Amino acid sequence: MLGRRLYSTASRYITSAKPTNGFIGAIGNTPLIRINSLSKETGCEILGKAEFMNPGGSVKDRAALFVVEAAERSGALQPGGTVVEGTAGNTGIGLAHVCRAKGYKCVIYMPNTQSQEKIDLLKMLGADVRPVPAVPFDNPDNYNHQAKRYAETLENAVWTDQFDNTANRQAHIETTGPEIWAQTQGKVDGFTCSTGSAGTFAGTTRFLKEVSNGRVKAFAADPPGSVIYSYVKSRGKSLDKEGSSITEGIGQGRITANLQPDVHLIDDALRIPDSDTIRTLYRLLDEEGIYLGASSALNVTAAYEMAKIMGPGHTIVTIMADGAYRYQSRLFSRKWLEAKGLADAIPAHLQKYIVLE
What does the alpha-carbon distance between residue 84 and residue 107 come to, in Å, rounded to a whole number? Predict the structure, then answer.
């Protein structure tokens, strides 16, 4: 009887009836978390998809699995092969995990501007990490082009090409979008997140638009230095990318193949300054106990702005892509924040969280 009572009490915390099949089986089905403070302020339900709870720690676990399995199905990747990618971090980490689980070698080219935490984690996962100078996509020495060229020199190797490989987008059509629809019981009114490869934004938007017969609004969230905001606002006539941002892994200088099929589905765009992003990041830590990276904080800021535009009574969903622990040596460093001109953007009562010099 005691055992039955304990099980009855504990069962409300049980989210799965059986174990998952290894690391890969644990990808997806992340919680949808209500951001209580922002929901109260706006009169909306502001919900964040907790993608930092994927087993590899980010939303990119989904894309990593889909691009590798697409290569397997096509025959391009055989047992014992090598996966090569150009990535600002999280896709590489997801690929490194998936490669370990499936027995592939993993080579990652990345801009040398990325956080040391990401580089160290990739190495711990057994990846061959190759930081290269950060140059624009149209430069032949861009990290993506270097990854492609290297893969072409190997036998039984694939360049997974996250930016233009639409298996990335498909991951979110098949998993993220349906999960959000089920978790909101079809009551979602708006979706917003930033784009890098644009797989998350495009795939989730495509599913939610189709399942709701176009009712769900989709707003692209963009940092300074990215062209998506100007492209949407100008209806494709401008690719202005003025400014720069502290965010990693988001922002784009072109329309990727993942975004191109769905660009017409975007209802509006929001440009989120770094000062708003960092303020939200610290506020979420203080008020919600949620420890997010900068791109995730930008997404939550965009959801807040979208809620204000749409008005009370709406349900707005965004993506909390990863946690702050991959960036903590920067985001919680007073010296770094001051160098970026962001220390004063953090309210006085939140300055106590700046714990690193």
Answer: 5
Q: What is the pLDDT of residues 6-47, one digit of tens each?
A: 445 444 445 556 888 999 999 999 999 999 999 999 999 999
Is there a domain that residue 9 lies in? no
Residue 81 has pLDDT above 50, yes or no: yes
Tokens (6 digits) for 239: 């690719």
> pLDDT class for 84, splitting at 50, 70, 90?
very high
Instruction: State how many domains the chain has.
Output: 2
Q: Which residues contact 247 (CB under 8 A, 6 or more apart)?
A: 194, 223, 274, 277, 294, 295, 298
Instruction: Kindly state whether residue 165 falls inside one of the protein's structural domains.
Output: no
Please indicate, yes or no, whether residues 284 and 349 belong to a single structural domain of this protein. Answer: yes
Token pair listed for 51: 């993608």
- Sign of the C-alpha dihedral computed for residues 20, 200, 206 and 67 taken in this order: negative
The CATH number covering residue 97 comes to: 3.40.50.1100
Token look-up 């711990």 returns 124
235: CB partners within 8 A, 6+ apart: none
pLDDT tens-digit readout, 314-347: 999 999 999 999 899 999 999 999 999 999 999 9
Total residue count of the chain as it appears in this document:
357
- The catalytic residues are 60
* pLDDT score recorded for residue 6: 43
Displacement of CA 21 from its chain's centroid (Å): 24
User: Taking all residues of the chain, what is their mean pLDDT, rounded to a whole number?
Assistant: 93
In terms of domains, do 251 and 329 share one? yes
Q: Are residues 149 and 177 in the same domain?
A: no
Domain that holds residue 243: 24-54+171-353
Asked whether residue 206 falls in the same domain as residue 292, the answer is yes
- Of 159, 181, 211, the one marking the end of a domain is 159
Give SS3 for 222.
Answer: strand
Report the distance separating Cα 279 and Cα 220, nearest Å: 20
